[in-house]
Structures are given as C-alpha cells and as structure tokens.
Amino acid sequence: MPELKALPYLDALTPYQGSANKVEDKGAKIRLCYNEGAFGPSPRAVEALRAAAFNQHRYPDMGYDGLRAALAARHRLEAARIVCGAGSDDLIALLTRAFMREGDEAICSQYGFSMYPVAIRVAGGVPVPVPENNFETGLDAMLKAVTPRTKIVFLANPNNPTGSWLRRGAMAAFLHDLPENILVAYDAAYAEYMDDEDYSDGFEWVRDEGRVCVLRTFSKIHGLAGLRVGWCYGSQVIADALNRVRNPFNLALGAEAAALAALRDEAFVESCRAHTIIWREKLFDHLMQCGFHPYPSKGNFVLAGLHSAAHVKDLLKFLEERDILIRPMGGYGLPDCVRISVGREEEMKALFKALNEFTGTQNDDEIQKENHDNADESRPVP
Ligand SMILES: *Cc1c(COP(=O)(O)O)cnc(C)c1O
Known about the structure:
With 382 residues, the chain is α/β, with parallel strands linked by helices. 37% of the residues lie in helices and 15% in strands. The chain contains twelve helices and twelve strands. Pyridoxal-5'-phosphate (PLP) is lined by residues 35, 87-89, 113, 156, 160, 187, 189, 217, 219-220, 225, 230.
C-alpha cells in the first residue's frame, strides 16, 4: 500500500524557533524576550476590541477598507496598493508563494529575521544567507549572491536581532545595482523606533511598476502581537499578486477594529517611542558597564555579546530565577549573544539590578541617580 507523504522538501525544514521559553513561562513577570510592546496595546485598541466582540458572528470585511484608508492617509500612500495580513509573517509567506517556486532562491542576511528562511523553504525555495560585516547587512555581498534563480531579497531595516540599520544612500545604491526582476521585501517592523534622520521608511522606493514592497506590523510599537496584524505596501503588481494568494478573510474582524483604533492613538505611540529610545540607550550603556558587548540598535531591543555560550546559559538561569526572561541567540547561530527587549521603567531597573548582581558591577548609585533624573520623564499610560 502506498503511504501518505508530505512534499519531500518539507522534511528538510526546521519550523520557526521561538524563544526557548516555555508556554508556562508566559506568566513570568518580566518578559524581555519577544520584542513586544512594553506598554501593551493602547487603551483605545482594547476598547475597540471589546466593542467588536459583539459582532463576532459576522465575517470581516474582505478588503479591510477602513484600515487601508487610514494607513494610506497616515503615510500618504495609495490604499489600493496596501495588503494586510495576519501579522507580517503572513505577508512574508504570501510573498514567497506568489513570487517563487521550487528550486528558486531568495537572499537574506546571515543574522536576519529567522522567519524568512522558514517561509522560503515552505515555498520550496532555497534561502541564500549572505555574510554580515560586524552585524550589519552586507548589501554588496547580497548583490554578489544574485543568480538567475534569485527571486526575492528579504531585508529588515532596522534588523532583528542585530538592531543594525541601513542608511538611505546605501539602500538607494543597492536598489540601483540590483536587477529589476528581483522583488525586494523591505521589512520595516521597527521603523517607529528609528531616530536616525538618514533612514528611509522605504515608501519612496515603492513605485507603481516597481519591485519594492515595504512590510509593517502592529506587533511592535502598537503592542498588538497577539492579534496578528501586518501590512504590505507595494507596487500594483505585488499588491495584485498578494490579493490573489491570500485567504479572503486573513484579517479578523476584531483585529481590524483594534488596529484602526491603535493607529489613531498617536499620543500613545509617541510616548512608547520616546520611552523606548531613552531606555534602549540606557540599556546599551548598562550592558557596557557590566562588561558585555552590546551592539548599537534602532529597534526596541539590544543585542549583546557575552564571553561564551556557557556565560549566556548562566545569565539566563540567573535572570530566570529573578522572573526575568531574555532571549538566547543560539537559534540565530550566535550562541554567545543575548537579545534583550526594552521594557517598562521598573522592569528595566529590575534587570539592571540583576545584571549588576550577576557581574558584580557596582553601579547601584548610578541607578538611584538616574531614577531621580527621570522622575518627570513623560511615560505612556500603562
Ligand atoms: C517582529 C518582527 C516582525 C513582525 O512579525 P508579525 O508577524 O507582524 O508579528 C516582522 N519582521 C521582523 C524583522 C520582526 O522582528
């Protein structure tokens, strides 16, 4: 009797590796391992979700016109070229389905977001990881990696987990040299946390006939990771393709309502952003003082090198005993690194104190002083 078999290339596939933390750890008090929004969703988004609860017998709007119109107005885009998805993960997978077939190649960065290779493999494609220079995306190496089989380049700017970012000029030069038939998925999941003037959110490169698309998410600054809302802005060719391959109802009714409300709460977004930028720099400095090797970041997290994989293991255990979860980077091929998300002020202070204890660093006075200095710092409503 012939046996049931899934597609052969699926055997070689490693499913997406989340944090090593278990489901039961999710009740832990201080979760700095998923780059989630430190302040949760905007109260207005919660309100919208509550209101939407009563309409759950209804199918959602297939075209989510309200959300697309609001996004278009906010960013001055064409609503017809926006496609939403169940998180940007959904859109990453849809791009691979629409633009590559078995045996095709997609280029990504060596320490790029680990969802890309997973999605590429599921589509039967071959991920082509390209080396980085000191944890920065190697654009020249990407150009060199192009072959006749290359269909997509995935790059995150800023990048997760390194936190590194590419300047507008470097990106423009890259696009100039890249063959026109290759899709560029410019993943700007952390764009809201950017404070470098010389950064492009990518929309300027999305032309009607173009090959660039920008990916954005409500999972980070809007604090809606649990609801799964992402969106893509691309040329008409890209938008049309995504609209053909996506499920008609790939954005839930409550998700659209909450995302719309979150988008309108500009004050909340601005205070999350201000808090994150301040504490990202404090986190960087503190990791330095503790003798770690942090890398500059424009995300809501900082990557840091420790002495060894054993050192990472000891630190994780030490922090876990204090109810603090951070992310080991072994899954990214960086066994001596950790990634730490920016949390609320009291969470960061607890982390800094624990790091001092772990490393025997004496800078508690420093924290007290900072505490005093920041007494009137504006903060989001929790
Ligand atoms: C977190 C993250 C996303 C967002 O994924 P969602 O599916 O929208 O939650 C996308 N890209 C990168 C690089 C990320 O770090």
